[in-house]
Design a protein that fits this description.
single chain, 802 residues, mainly beta, 15-stranded antiparallel sheet, 3 helices, 56% strand, disordered N terminus
Length: 802
């Protein structure tokens, strides 16, 4: 029979007797310590062994044969062939197949282990430890030299698994072998002497000294994994990031990019977390001439890797902050600017276009903004002001590859972009029902200022002057809008859902700097619209087989509005892009923003069918369309290549809207897809998008997407139609070896704009990819770029990115 002893309840309860006696003598003594999750108080010990004995404060326990002793104390677990524990000193010694688990879950293995009073390994023979993140550290001997320094001799560290799925030993993919390893807890680092790096057990690199953060450290100062790259303009580049941790709430990232053909480029990043917010600021600087493809002699033949222009300072700055103090108010900002339109492309700056504020500038546009928000359970208010820097090419030069006669790329005129100050949005709804329904009040106000003239689609065709527009002032506009909407959902006994609604809206505009030939300078314009209508839907569910349901949901909307006044003097600022889909088809205002609105009599109908089976697998399809009592020519805009001709990019100008077809499917947990299309009355696809994701095996995956826009009926250099196919995926061929591919094909121009193909190695702790890439986008000012790329990610050590 095993002898089971529970300290605190049996023989080892004597360890707590002095404390009990003290409590009896002093009425003011504190209450006894509470038991932990394992049921033991801090001064209790639980031992399970074949034999155990006690001599004073020293407890010894032995396991017979292959059996091991189990000891639990101070939220730790110790298993070994034999254990000695000193109750007074809190020191434990263990031998034979020792396994120790500390309160944080780290595991230590050894043939001999001595634990000090802090439950740290004082001396260990045949030492091995496994950290919580899966990394392993092994050594012939381990000694705790001081309170904060551990020393290991003839050690091996690996962030990779050392056993396969069957528990058998295997060679780790990456390992560092060293004559001596020192773990310094003050430095929070592991230091190596005579370190040899092994890949698959093969030595590939030697350093007399090496260091990296302790695997349990979230952040520590030091060099990150270098980032190699190649570009025809820069040559071979190597970015060497260094992280400097100032405090738990602040750090710097210094990342110089060294180039063989141009001057170095220095990247900096600063991050600081405050009690109620965060600021992130990054920037870069170099002193260099321009470079790329350029027509030196004007013969139309662009030469590669040409430097031109004077050396000058070139830089960028990207910053954002967000603060959320106690209460309903919060605020934030973004500050984004670059000295060169092409700087991000030439130096491969990572992720310069991010959505960090209340508003975002879209791809290849930088936005600087200041915003304030207030949100409660029933209300929301935001106030913002922003300006935009554009890095897009000028569509007027599309027919010449966006180049002027000297061969320079021509970019969008920023004087045509508005300064927005302020932009106010507010919403409120009362807590109590109004006439049994929900009332929502909305308000909006905005002021926009431009330096240079912009024609369609900002201005309506009726007010666009004929002839040259050079030197005309930019149109300034101010708007104040108010809207009230009331809805009440009702369910009939037969399951039909009825929702009557009423909507009222008023817009006030002040427009200045209209084209002088109109004879107008400052105009005040007011308009209103009242709408009443009814939404009806009737969801039907039917069981079509074991575990399968078919849901049919026909829906319809009838609305009557007063005639809208689409005054041609009102600029169209916030309603230029419409995505007609299942959600927007039934809205009262299907155009985004406020500048365009619909009126008259409308009837909208649609139906959704959904098939669900096998616990989460499903497929659905929606088809719908809207009919109006009359056409709306105010939705027509000039063709980019023929301003005197008009077309309908929205699909709503006719008395019948485009058909909306939308669906999604997920026949298994490894395949999913969705699609959306708008089809005109002639059966021609106006816009469509479809995407399919697939996974097979454990790590093989692929994504294919297709998008097309055929709304512009006229071909020309400014034609905005497009058609793209995008593919990305990876396939493992042998073990951890595979191939990775990605690409974007522009079917409209019959060119592959971006492509990558690479050889891939990936296991539990190491991912390495090397391949060939080509960038042939029109916006890239340096012309097509191609070369070899390298990507590396190491568990614990990080990757080529930050």
């Amino acid at each position: 029979m095993r002898l089971r002893l529970l300290a605190g309840a049996a023989a080892f309860a004597l360890a707590s007797l002095p404390g009990i006696a003290e409590a009896q003598d002093s009425p003011a003594a504190t209450a006894p310590a509470l038991a932990g999750p394992d049921g033991l108080t801090p001064d209790a010990v639980y031992i399970e062994a074949d034999s155990a004995a006690r001599d004073g404060d020293v407890i010894t326990a032995e396991g017979a044969g292959a059996d091991r002793v189990l000891a639990r104390f101070r939220a730790s677990t110790l298993r070994a062939g034999s254990i000695s524990y000193d109750l007074g000193l809190g020191v434990a010694t263990a031998d034979r197949q020792v396994e120790f688990v500390d309160p944080e879950g780290n595991v230590v293995f050894a043939s001999h282990l001595e634990l000090d009073s802090d439950l740290r390994a004082g001396v260990a023979v045949d030492f091995a430890t496994r950290f919580r993140n899966g990394a392993s550290l092994m050594a012939a001997t381990a000694v705790r030299r001081s309170e904060n320094v551990n020393e290991l001799n003839y050690a091996l560290f690996t962030p990779c698994p050392i056993c396969d799925a069957d528990g058998e030993p295997k060679e780790p993919t990456i390992a560092i072998q060293a004559e001596k390893v020192v773990q310094d807890e003050d430095l929070r680092a592991i230091l190596y002497r005579n370190a040899v790096f092994r890949v698959g057990g093969v030595p590939v690199f030697y350093l007399p000294f090496f260091a990296h953060p302790d695997p349990t450290v979230e952040r520590a100062s030091g060099f990150l994994v270098p980032i190699p790259s190649y570009d025809e303009g820069r040559g071979v580049s190597l970015e060497i990031p260094y992280l400097r941790v100032v405090s738990p709430s602040e750090d710097w990232l210094i990342s110089p990019q060294l180039n063989t053909d141009v001057a170095p480029f220095l990247n900096l990043q600063w991050r600081r977390r405050f009690a109620d917010g965060t600021i992130v600021a990054r920037g870069g600087y170099t002193y260099e001439r321009n470079f790329g493809d350029f027509d030196l002699d004007g013969d139309g033949d662009f030469e590669s890797n040409v430097k031109f222009g004077d050396r000058t300072s070139r830089s960028y700055f990207l910053a954002h902050g967000r603060f959320d103090p106690e209460g309903p108010w919060r605020w934030g900002f973004t500050a984004e600017q670059t000295s060169d339109k092409t700087l991000f492309d030439r130096y491969d700056i990572r992720d310069p276009y991010q959505d960090n504020g209340l508003y975002y500038g879209d791809q290849r546009r930088l936005i600087s903004q200041l915003y304030l928000e207030r949100q409660t359970e029933r209300s929301y208010v935001s106030v913002a002001a922003f300006s935009i820097q554009s890095l897009r090419l000028d569509p007027a030069f599309a027919g010449t590859d966006f180049r002027d006669p000297q061969g320079f790329k021509v970019f969008e005129n920023e004087g045509r972009l508005p300064l927005v100050a302020p932009l106010i949005d507010a919403r409120w709804e009362p807590a109590a029902p109004i006439f049994g329904g929900r009332l929502r009040l909305r308000g909006s106000a905005v002021s926009l200022y431009r330096n240079d003239y912009v024609g369609g689609p900002v201005l309506r065709p009726e007010v666009i002057p004929t002839g040259s527009t050079l030197g005309l002032p930019g149109v300034d506009s101010r708007r104040v809008s108010g809207q009230a909407e009331w809805r009440r959902p009702l369910i009939s006994p037969g399951g039909v859902r009825w929702e009557p609604f009423v909507d009222a809206r008023v817009d006030l505009y002040s427009v200045g700097d209209l084209p002088p030939m109109m004879g107008l300078r400052e105009e005040a314009i007011g308009r209103g619209r009242a709408t009443a209508g009814l939404d009806v839907s009737y969801p039907l569910v039917r069981r079509v087989g074991p575990g399968a349901d078919l849901i049919l949901e026909p829906m319809a909307q009838l609305s009557v509005s007063t005639t809208t006044d689409l005054d041609p003097r009102i600029p169209i600022e916030d309603s230029q892009t419409l995505e007609l889909d299942e959600s927007s088809l039934f809205r009262i205002d299907r155009f985004p923003g406020h500048d365009l609105l619909e009126g008259g009599l409308r009837f909208t109908a649609g139906a959704r069918a959904t098939l669900r089976w096998d616990e989460g697998r499903q497929a659905s399809l929606f088809v719908g369309r809207s009919i109006r009592d009359a056409e709306e020519p105010g939705f027509l805009v000039p063709l980019p290549d023929a301003p005197t001709q008009l077309y309908d990019p929205s699909g709503l100008a006719s008395d019948t809207s485009d058909w909306v077809v939308q669906g999604d499917f997920s026949p298994s947990d490894r395949i999913r897809g969705w699609g959306h299309a708008t089809i005109d009355s002639a059966g021609e696809i106006r816009r469509a998008e479809i995407a399919v994701d697939g996974r097979w095996g454990r790590r093989n995956l692929a994504t294919v997407s297709y998008i097309v826009d055929r709304s512009n009926p006229l071909a020309g250099p400014l034609n905005r139609n497009y058609e793209f196919v995008q593919l990305s995926g990876q396939q493992f061929v042998y073990g951890n070896w595979g191939v990775a591919v990605s690409g974007i094909a522009d079917l409209e121009r019959d060119i592959v704009t971006r492509s990558e193909v690479g050889l891939l190695f990936d296991d539990d702790c190491f991912r390495f990819e090397i391949g060939y890439r080509r960038d042939n986008t029109r916006v890239r000012p340096t012309g097509p770029s191609e070369g070899v790329y390298v990507r590396l990610n190491l568990a614990t050590f990080g990757g080529t990115g930050y």
